[in-house]
Amino acid sequence: METTRALAENLAFNPLDPKDLLHTFGLYGVWAILFAETGLLVGFFFPGDSLLFLAGVAATPVADAIFGDGTKISLAGLLIGAPVCAIIGAQLGHLLGARYGTRMFDKPDSRLFKREYVEKAEHYFQKFGPAKAVVLARFIPIVRTFLNPVAGVLGMPAKQFFVWNVVGAILWTDGIILIGYLLADRIYDAIGTHIDRYILPFVALIVLISILPIIIEIIRDRRARKRAKEMAIIGVSPVAGIAEAVEEKRRGSHRAP
To answer: How many CA within 13 A on the CB side of residue 248?
Structure first.
């Protein structure tokens, strides 16, 4: 009977469900998924943001009540191991991009891989510059997977990439983990053990807050372009008027005799 129950639980396991991942693999599962999502192109579909948030919840005393007995994991192990695995994964992605170049992406679209993922990563890299792109991409699903090899393909130096890789990894992993850790008691008091029903709104809010710098940057860029266009019009008009006046005066002097 116990063997049948264990088999049924294994068959019911969903690798894309962060709650199942935490209950089944614990701390080591968090580390492995962060490495795969940031270092291997096949890991872009893993639920990184929601996993980090729930991992923070799983480091609190209410972990066993929400996820099941024996789920509670070490907060120190999360705060140290999560950014380290994310850093190593991203650095591997950059290395592969630098070594193999565009050959990494020379494959037809499929259900998992789409060329637009690479193009989106290239867009952020070109738009925000190498440093900002590496940091901000951490908070954008799919982009955080593909931007690392794209940075290698586009020739971003490994040392420069490493510096901003560390900054982005710590802000992303430890930031979301601490949010989950600090809000765990309030979440449990409000919704009890049904956290899986509300995880998407929580994560959506976290992602929205995370991409605020990108939104602000886009608004600033549009304003700067608009201002530059207005200045160009203002700058050209007087010059054009002066040129017309000079030309008219020259024509008048020729007509005078």
So the answer is: 6
Identity of the residue numbered 201:
P
Show pLDDT as tens, one digit a residue, over the chain (257 residues): 444 444 334 434 454 566 677 767 788 988 988 998 888 776 666 667 888 888 888 898 888 777 777 778 899 999 999 999 999 999 999 998 888 877 767 666 655 566 777 777 787 787 778 888 888 888 887 788 888 888 888 888 999 999 999 999 999 999 989 988 988 888 777 666 566 566 666 666 766 666 666 677 667 777 877 887 777 776 554 544 545 555 565 665 555 54
Asked if 54 contacts 1 with a C-beta cutoff of 8 angstroms, the reply is: no
Q: Under a CB-based contact definition with an 8 Å cutoff, are residues 65 and 188 in contact?
A: yes
- Alpha-carbon dihedral angle through residues 236, 239, 244, 250, given to the nearest 10 degrees: -160
Rounded Cα distance, 199 and 179, in Å: 13
